Amino acid sequence: MWQFHTTLTSEHAYAAHPLGWIVQWRPTSYYYPPEVSGLTGQQAIDACGAASCSQAITSMGNPVIWWAAAAAALVALVWLLRFRDWRAGAVLSGIAAGWLPWFLYSHRTIFTFYSIAFTPWVVLTLTYVLGLVLGPRTDDARADRGRRWATFWVGAFLVLVVLVSAFFYPIWTAWVVPYDFWHAHMWLPSWV
Q: What is the CA radius of gyration of the chain?
């Protein structure tokens, strides 16, 4: 079993190097049925109200969360090295334990969805850094004003996360949608 899984090197269109997992560089398309996604003409108009349709399930996380978390991991690393904050080390240890071993197997066929093993740690790292942005509560009026601004920006970020989640929901759950709607969700060429 070990031999098979460490030497599996068959080509696959959605194979993804682990380096790109943290930024969702090459998500896996789970479902894109030609009987719906290939509809044209009146059949497409009946199915999705457009000249062509798409129906997809893609293993792509919320890009705002993943992109911000990639930056947060760098901030946490700096915080660990500069301030020796054990909390930074704790959240980064989960990412390291779940992600770094895959680099030893990057020669084999692997996929972005394997990042599910360290996804909770990605979110915890982002949460840790958002906590740094907020800063501690104090009785200092000037610091309190800065914390209110930080709270505003963190809140705005969280609203953006929710909006982007709502935007991607049809692509995560196989809604039948117009092709142009589906294509508007493919922000990077590597996502198609």
A: 21
Amino acid found at 154 = V
Q: Is 76 exposed, middle or buried (0-12, 13-18, 19+ CB in 10 A)?
A: buried
User: What is the full DSSP assignment across 38-103?
Assistant: T-BHHHHHHHHSSSBEEE-EE----HHHHHHHHHHHHHHHHHHHHH--HHHHHHHHHHHHHHGGGG
Write the burial class of residue 111 (CB in 10 Å: 0-12 exposed, 13-18 middle, 19+ buried). Answer: middle
**Tens digit of pLDDT for each residue in 43-89?**
999 999 999 999 999 999 999 999 999 999 999 999 999 999 999 99
Choose among 78, 92, 86, 89: nearest CA to 22.
92
Instruction: For residue 28, give Cα distances in angstroms to 9, 35, 45, 160.
Output: 17, 20, 28, 24
